[in-house]
Amino acid sequence: MRKKTALSLLLSLLLLLCSCALAAPDTLEATFLDVGKADAILITAGDYAVLIDAGPRESAGILLDALAQRGVMQLDMMIITHFDRDHVGGAYRVLREVPVRMLIDADYEADSGPYERYLRAIESTGVFRTRLAQQMFIPMGEMAFTLYPSPVEDGKANDLSVLVSLLYGEHSFFFAADAEEALIDAVLGAGVEPHTVLKVPHHGRWKDNLGAFLDALQPRIAVITDSEEVRAADSVVALLADRGIEVYHTRFGDVTVYSDGKELSVVHLKQEVFSR
Questions:
Q1: Average pLDDT per run of 10 along the chain, which is 276 residues long?
Q2: Which residues, at least 6 apart from 34, have a Cβ–Cβ distance to it below 8 Å?
Q3: Whole-model pTM?
Q4: Superfamily the domain 27-275 falls into
Q5: Lower CB count within 10 Å: N or C terminus of the chain?
């Protein structure tokens, strides 16, 4: 009888430990894919998957492979920050091959082949599309997204970009798309909270107000989506280094940031290069 009681207690303890393990916070994985001088950022946490931009058309296969490798069967949200080919080009294939529950993009029209293909994919798939005209807050499991429409009027396409903030536990990510000086000025004027991780605007090209932007955001980690052919400006890399910010370039391969809400680590070239 005592043996049965002891065994029951042991089984109960094991079940309790398993339950605690299952209740542990999900790990967030944000991968900045190496798709050339372009943006394609895949974010997963728990059962949720979000894609910010889809790179150029010729890199759509890389993006689809990344989804398959992670077992992503559908996207809960796709955000197209603006309609330049290096952000919207791969969206056509993604929309046609992967179910997308919610599509959010910039509130303007473009005149280009990649944009026309994108519109055809939206029409043929019937995906629910929101053209961002006002700030949106979107909770998604442990993640909380805030999407900001551009307040710039009649500017360059880059300055019409949707900006994205992601809060996850004690850490936050700011995805600055291809923001130019006008959009950065608007962000600074509206006030921006510090963020742990920054997707550097416009592939690391120099902006006269970038220093003020970094001082406001105070990031610990910066990711630059550049390529061997079009590298980030040396002046931008130096500016980041002067502020003690860890800098990673997708031209050397995918950059993946992991977080359990408290700890943060970065894997680049399949090696852990930052952990805190």
A1: 38 34 66 97 97 97 96 97 98 97 97 97 97 98 97 90 98 98 97 97 98 98 96 97 96 96 86 50
A2: 62, 250, 251, 252, 253, 254
A3: 0.89
A4: Ribonuclease Z/Hydroxyacylglutathione hydrolase-like (3.60.15.10)
A5: N
